[in-house]
């Protein structure tokens, strides 16, 4: 499979690391980015081919991954329009366009791409860097079964995939798992701060907080029991955990988390609306 990336930043680098030499040889991956340092690192690390601007190698790919910031998307894809039109006139295959950008809607992308129909939107997350990502995906109507499978293969190279039946739900995925790693890091930072305020060193606090997250997340992942039961098992009546969770309830921590996740989803929707306006 030939794969092209428009944008070679953080998320593209995570995907390239998962794909190169596993799903396809590095030489079958082409990365376009105006930043020479990003290209050099990807070429040196994975043997990918590179270009500072969109060229024919992009439309020769079966899958074109759009990995620029939402605010740059419209401008970044404009040079693709004549190349896609030429490829279709020559009767070549229509590449699948796989966008990882938060918010940007398939209908707007299709319009910016001159009516290109084969678009999958997806929302990965940064644990993709260590092959432990999770991505939500949704296919627009012009996507073939083979293209859907290709999109799944690309994202499975860096973790698990969850397919959605309705594009409006991808903003929820953005709020939960796309932005989610930041919430976990925030919680780890808070636990480390508490550890220091209780007299431990910053290093000890960080080690305890990180290992607690890793252990609890692995336990939740591996256990057949509901997460609620796992929580209750830690919580002895009248004990220390009960004191902490009661304090969290009184401070409205759960409600605040729910509100925060909804704010991320709403921002995704808003970005799509803003960028989709002509
Ligand atoms: N960082 C994250 O946790 C996640 C990010 N995303 C989405 O991934 C996309 C990329 O995000 P990051 O990799 O974090 O950003 P980044 O800033 O690390 O990478 C963006 C890259 O695009 C390049 N670029 C800018 N204009 C360009 C153009 N016209 N043509 C080609 N390349 C161009 C930049 O030089 C940069 O290397 C965003 O749309 C974001 O919404 C999705 C899931 C998670
Ligand atoms: O914060 C953002 O906009 C991107 C999308 C999901 C995670 N990071």
From TrEMBL:
Record Pfam families: F420_oxidored (PF03807), P5CR_dimer (PF14748)
InterPro entries, alphabetized: 6-PGluconate_DH-like_C_sf, NAD(P)-bd_dom_sf, P5C_Rdtase_cat_N, P5CR-like_CS, P5CR_dimer, Pyrroline-COOH_reductase
Residue ranges of domain Pyrroline-5-carboxylate reductase catalytic N-terminal in the record: 2-82
GO biological process, one term: L-proline biosynthetic process
EC numbers for this chain: 1.5.1.2
Pathway: Amino-acid biosynthesis; L-proline biosynthesis; L-proline from L-glutamate 5-semialdehyde: step 1/1
Keyword tags: Amino-acid biosynthesis, Cytoplasm, NADP, Oxidoreductase, Proline biosynthesis
Subcellular location: Cytoplasm
Domain Pyrroline-5-carboxylate reductase dimerisation: 167-271
Catalytic activity as recorded in UniProt: L-proline + NAD(+) = (S)-1-pyrroline-5-carboxylate + NADH + 2 H(+); L-proline + NADP(+) = (S)-1-pyrroline-5-carboxylate + NADPH + 2 H(+)
Residues that bind NADP(+): 6-11, 67-70
Gene Ontology CC annotations of this record: cytoplasm
GO molecular function, one term: pyrroline-5-carboxylate reductase activity
Stored SUPFAM superfamilies: 6-phosphogluconate dehydrogenase C-terminal domain-like, NAD(P)-binding Rossmann-fold domains
Major subcellular site: cytoplasm
Family indicated by similarity: Belongs to the pyrroline-5-carboxylate reductase family.
Function: Catalyzes the reduction of 1-pyrroline-5-carboxylate (PCA) to L-proline.
Protein name: Pyrroline-5-carboxylate reductase
